[in-house]
């Protein structure tokens, strides 16, 4: 691919590169460009990256309006050379003003960017809300991870410039940013947003209710609320069951333990529910009836009685189950994780009960390595079932002689495994011996008697003969 760089630009570039302070380096194999720019004086080194598919700007401050207006023309010219879509543009550990953001968005207007990300970013200043000239940037996904004083969502109605594109986003990730809500007015404008991640923020139940007001996020399919301050399952259900396209919901790492039984019904669209690490001791809530993937791992559950006709994946890792018999009716279950539970044994019948089972994870369990357990597990691992973490994760806890040994390596002798049978055999043999001895003694006595009689008789004869 040949490129034509205007001569004037070429001069600028070479000069800038000579005085470069930091700058960009291009990894041809990954098509990744990494720039560390203290400021914009060496921004032209980005020319070396016009073949990149991902761009990363590390460190620096982009706040001085005059400085980047100086580079406006150069920037536009360089970026105009990028014709391929960019998979990702990342700003990390930077301080950015809203005005810079506007300029940047204007520069990249013609470039399709799948994801624009800001990591560890401090947003400064207040924009004068100049409307964007030309068409809005073609950005599908916006990520803000650990952004501080991010003002866009509190004041987004002020930003006539931003709304032309921000409300066209399909994915929004806004995590670790001390967010405690999105104004209802703003939520309603995300007409095409299908994936929203608000994990690791300060959201409480009321904040979710107000953010997901009637008409908010009408197209939402995936919602992650991992690690916030949610406490009431029922409130969350009442709020979110208005979202009739919601397919995936992640509520993991919230404290839902205090909630009483909920009779709230979820939308039929919901197929994945993540309740991992939510302090659950019992489960009296109504679960989504079309649920295909249910994650209940890292709770305090010891029993379940569910009936989920579409369930394919059930995660029960790190709970308090001592058995998996009668956990529920799941006719389509394919994947079951029960690792880290205080069970002692795993019976073939318990797993065979689920006819479509293909993958089991049952490591990290204090197995009692009885003959039947060792036999069953070893046999099952050779069948069509896949045992995850086999063989390293499957270790005997007792008897003492086998403690610490892998189940796959346990070799129990014929004698040890057939103790009952052998005992019966020994009993029978002993009995036979006893009977034989008794018979023998009896016979011996009898023959002794007859011999004596014979002897007496012969003696009599002898005497008669002698006489
Ligand atoms: C968040 O970003 C700030 C800089 O903006 C940084 O100092 C801090 O270490 C980051 N925190 C985390 C948890 O990443
Ligand atoms: C964000 O900050 C944290 C903590 O300082 C650091 O560990 C992480 O690597 C930073 N992220 C990026 C993409 O630089
Ligand atoms: C979030 O909810 C808490 C508790 O109800 C409330 O005090 C706070 O103001 C709410 N925050 C927002 C942004 O609505
Ligand atoms: C919501 O938007 C309407 C009209 O756009 C406006 O009148 C109202 O004040 C807004 N409400 C809030 C809480 O911003
Ligand atoms: C549920 O969330 C946890 C994190 O909280 C994650 O590790 C796990 O993979 C999620 N489960 C599913 C099935 O996505
Ligand atoms: C969860 O909430 C319950 C009751 O509301 C409380 O007793 C418990 O300490 C909380 N657990 C955590 C880990 O915060
Ligand atoms: C399980 O639930 C069904 C109804 O959903 C009920 O009839 C049955 O008695 C329950 N079983 C146990 C062991 O609680």
Automatic annotation (TrEMBL):
GO biological process, one term: inflammatory response
Database matches in InterPro entries: Cys-rich_flank_reg_C (IPR000483), Leu-rich_rpt (IPR001611), Leu-rich_rpt_typical-subtyp (IPR003591), LRR_dom_sf (IPR032675), Monocyte_diff_Ag_CD14 (IPR016337)
Lipid bilayer topology: Lipid-anchor; GPI-anchor
Pfam families per UniProt: LRR_1, LRRCT
MF annotations from Gene Ontology: lipopolysaccharide binding
Gene3D superfamilies the UniProt entry points to: Ribonuclease Inhibitor (3.80.10.10)
Domain of life: Eukaryota
TM helices/strands, residue ranges: 421-441
Keyword vocabulary terms for this entry: Cell membrane, Disulfide bond, Glycoprotein, Golgi apparatus, GPI-anchor, Immunity, Inflammatory response, Innate immunity, Leucine-rich repeat, Lipoprotein, Membrane, Receptor, Repeat, Secreted, Signal, Transmembrane, Transmembrane helix
Signal peptide as annotated in the record: 1-20
Keyword rRNA processing among record annotations: no
Subcellular location field: Cell membrane; Golgi apparatus; Membrane raft; Secreted
Cellular component aspect of the GO annotation: external side of plasma membrane; extracellular region; Golgi apparatus; lipopolysaccharide receptor complex; membrane raft
Broad class of the protein's primary localization: membrane
Residues in LRRCT domain copies: 394-417
Record protein name field: Monocyte differentiation antigen CD14
Organism from which the protein derives: Xenopus laevis (African clawed frog)
């Amino acid at each position: 691919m040949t490129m034509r760089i205007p001569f004037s630009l070429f001069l600028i570039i070479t000069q800038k590169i000579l005085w470069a302070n930091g700058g960009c380096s291009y990894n041809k194999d990954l098509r990744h460009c990494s720039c560390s720019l203290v400021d914009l004086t060496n921004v032209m080194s980005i020319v070396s990256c016009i073949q990149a598919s991902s761009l990363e700007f590390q460190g620096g401050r982009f706040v001085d309006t005059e400085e980047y207006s100086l580079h406006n023309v150069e920037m536009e010219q360089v970026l105009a050379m990028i014709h391929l879509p960019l998979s990702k543009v990342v700003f990390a550990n930077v301080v950015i003003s809203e005005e810079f953001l506007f300029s940047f968005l204007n520069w990249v207007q013609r470039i399709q960017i799948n994801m624009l990300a800001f990591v560890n970013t401090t947003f400064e200043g207040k924009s004068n809300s100049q409307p964007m000239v030309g068409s809005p940037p073609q950005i599908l996904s916006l990520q803000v991870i650990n952004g501080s004083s991010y003002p866009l969502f509190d004041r987004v109605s002020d930003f006539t410039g931003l709304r032309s594109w921000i409300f066209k986003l399909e994915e929004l990730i806004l995590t670790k940013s001390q967010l405690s809500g999105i104004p209802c007015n703003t939520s309603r404008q995300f007409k095409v947003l299908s994936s929203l991640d608000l994990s690791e923020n300060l959201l409480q139940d009321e904040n979710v209710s107000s953010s997901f007001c009637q008409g908010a996020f009408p197209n939402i399919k995936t919602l992650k609320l991992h690690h916030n301050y949610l406490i009431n399952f029922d409130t969350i259900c009442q709020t979110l069951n208005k979202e009739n396209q919601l397919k995936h919901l992640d509520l993991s790492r919230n404290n839902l333990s205090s909630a009483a039984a909920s009779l709230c019904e979820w939308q039929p669209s919901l197929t994945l529910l993540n309740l991992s690490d939510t302090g659950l001791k019992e489960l009296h809530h109504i679960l989504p009836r079309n649920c295909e993937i249910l994650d209940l791992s890292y709770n305090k559950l010891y029993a379940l009685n569910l009936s989920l006709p579409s369930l394919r994946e059930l995660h029960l890792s790190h709970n308090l189950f001592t058995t998996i018999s009668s956990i529920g009716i799941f006719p389509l279950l394919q994947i079951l994780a029960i690792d880290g539970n205080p069970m002692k044994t795993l019976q073939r019948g318990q797993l065979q009960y689920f006819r479509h089972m293909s993958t089991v994870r049952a490591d990290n369990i204090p197995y009692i390595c009885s003959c039947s357990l060792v036999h069953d597990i070893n046999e099952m691992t050779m069948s069509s079932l896949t045992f995850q973490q086999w063989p390293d994760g499957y270790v005997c806890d007792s008897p003492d002689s086998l403690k610490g040994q892998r189940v796959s390596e346990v070799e129990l002798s014929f004698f040890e495994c057939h103790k009952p049978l052998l005992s019966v055999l020994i009993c029978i043999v002993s009995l036979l011996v006893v009977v034989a001895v008794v018979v023998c003694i009896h016979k011996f006595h009898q023959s002794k008697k007859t011999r004596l009689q014979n002897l007496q008789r012969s003696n009599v004869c002898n005497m008669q003969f002698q006489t």
